[in-house]
Amino acid sequence: NLESLMPRIVDGFQIYLRELRVDDLRGSAGMYRLREDLLRRINEVVKPIRINDILFKEMLIQ
Hints:
By secondary structure, the chain is mostly helical.
């Protein structure tokens, strides 16, 4: 069940996102790299389920 894995998914995302710098997210290449990295991380947690895409509803950079 994907819902039961959400705490591990969110924790993995938060650890990864804390390591990023603003320069890592600049431009379309930065967003593409972010999407690919998050997909790789989520798919490691949810195996054998396969997630194919992530939708960014909002992006806040501080």
